[in-house]
Amino acid sequence: MDINAYLRDHIRTVPDWPAPGVQFRDITPLLQNPRVFRVLIDQFVHRYMAPELRPDVVAGIDARGFILGSVIAYELNVGFVPIRKKGKLPYATVEESYELEYGSATVEIHTDAVQHGHRVLLIDDLIATGGTMMAGKRLLEKLGAEVIEGAAIVDLPELGGSHALRATGLPLFTLVDYAGH
């Protein structure tokens, strides 16, 4: 089975959302079908079972990274850490701001979310400009963790995010690449 094609067949493209000219890649159909969801999760779990890539903890980026990250963490028998939008976490936090296409945003993590030296898998659903994943990486590093890899279902390389992330030395793993689509 060609996993890339199989998963791509279950990603819905919504034209002109949230703005005219945008081709939104909607992953919710991947989650709705139990067989497809299992195939998706298994791709990540099997990769991160390898001793050299095995994390101490999985960090998921708000909000779809929570869906993937918590299931992957459960399957790997490691902890899960949420990286949330500013103002959503109840305990002491550190924050990191980043630029969006039209403005800026801030994400936060609890100060006790990871330990110094923890090996962390950072996961989200999609890499576009890379700003959110880069902010998550910086947050984890502020707390002394090592981000061993950034992972996502979808890469939109034409938006430059995966290139920018790799340029910082962050290894990336994605399942579906929409280059030229």
Helix content: 25-40%
- CATH architecture tag of the domain at 53-177: 3-Layer(aba) Sandwich
The DSSP helix count reads: 6
Q: Structural class from helices and strands?
A: alpha/beta
Largest sheet geometry: 7 strands, mixed
Low-confidence segments, given as residue ranges, are none
Number of DSSP strands?
A: 9
**CATH-defined fold name of the domain at 53-177:** Rossmann fold
CATH level 1 class label of the domain at 53-177: Alpha Beta
Following the backbone from N to C, one meets helices and strands in this order, namely: HEEHHEHEEEEHEHE
Q: Give me the side-by-side strand order of the main sheet.
A: 5-6-4-3-7-8-9
- Rg (C-alpha, Å): 16 Å
Q: Could you explain the architecture of this structure?
A:
Keywords: Cytoplasm, Glycosyltransferase, Purine salvage, Transferase. It holds the Pfam family Pribosyltran. InterPro entries: Ade_phspho_trans (IPR005764), PRTase-like (IPR029057), PRTase_dom (IPR000836), UPRTase/APRTase (IPR050054). One of its GO terms (molecular function) is AMP binding. It catalyses: AMP + diphosphate = 5-phospho-alpha-D-ribose 1-diphosphate + adenine. By secondary structure, the protein is an alpha/beta fold. The chain has a domain of 125 residues: Rossmann fold, CATH 3.40.50. Helices cover 32% and strands 34% of the residues. The protein contains six helices and nine strands, in the order αββααβαββββαβαβ. The strands form two sheets. A seven-stranded mixed beta sheet has the order 5-6-4-3-7-8-9, with helices on both faces. Strands 1-2 form a two-stranded antiparallel sheet. A hairpin with a 2-residue loop joins β5 and β6. α3 packs across α4. The longest helix has 15 residues. It is globular and about 40 Å long. The model has no long low-confidence stretch (mean pLDDT 96).
